[in-house]
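Progress against Task 2.4 (sequence-to-structure conversion) is shown through the following example record, which the project officer requested during the mid-term review.
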Amino acid sequence: MKFEVQKPVFLDALHMACNAIPSKTTLQILYNLLFQLKGNELEIRATDLDMTIVLKLQVEGHKNGSIVVNARKLLEVVKELPDFPVIISVDDFLFTIKSESGFHGTLTGYDASEYPSLPEVEHGKAFKAPLKDLRFLAEKASFAVSTDFSRMSLTGVYCEGKNGKLEMVATDGHRFGKAWIELKGATLPGVILPPKALGQVLRMSEDPEELIEIEIGAAQARFSTQAITLLTKLIDGPYPNYENVIPKEFARNMKCNREHLMSVLRRVSTLSNAKTHLVVFGFEAKSLQLTAKNPDLGGDSEESLPVEFQGEKVEVGVNAAYMLEELRLSQSEEIRLKFNNPLGAVVVEPVMDKPNYFFIVMPLRILKEPG
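Structure tokens generated for the chain above:
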């Protein structure tokens, strides 16, 4: 095998491929990349058996062939090369790297037939979505993915297409995010996408308008552009029926300036409990008072801001870190909080025409601080 490629193009491809290389595995072959050259098209493949990335590059091909070579070491070498064309040649499993700068290096390769075969997406139905829309959906949902692997279904992002809409949902039981877009042809049963794979999908192109072809099968999902294909195993379900925790009607409703609430909450939370980040929201007709206590420091804080509030006055305990994250993601001038009682779900949504996302934060019990 022999080909010539521009260093920046080669380096970008290696960076992308190495995202599928496992940090630790008992299968040594997975620490490697598979190279296959046919004419002027070079295919680079990487996998950890859960996620597979396949890239296709246009190069100046001189001799077809295939080989498997260590991913991290090759990336390390190419990263240090100057921005001159790189010449790769393979002779009897010796992978040779040359640069016009005068650099010459070799790595021992392995037989390509030992590399895992590509997974298949069975019974998949394909549709396309702009990358910018996928980024929007993922941003509004993936922050709430659980890291508790005792509940595997919550460690992914739930994705479903129905009624001309594509939606993504995630929750860890304390936070919740849901977003949706109008997308004709996006018909798919609910599946759970691994957040690592979804994160790589969002990096598949620098053009936010590029269409990503999506095919969801029984156990695998495929995302592809002309140059990159990503395949991933789906997380086994079922996903919890999250609709049950979303109230249909609300007895209390508050509206205020989002940035003002964020700045007050940040200040008050500096003296909140270091473990729970508890800040008490005291709702009244025209004001919201935020208070916090830190028993370890023997300190406390409070500040009020003007709001529009409908309903009986009440105090609700909130994890300030969770609330700040959801307020940051809301990206609207005004924000609305809707809830029924001090222990019920608090819905956080932007004040805008036809909002297409919302969040939930579950309240904390307000207990008398010791001491």
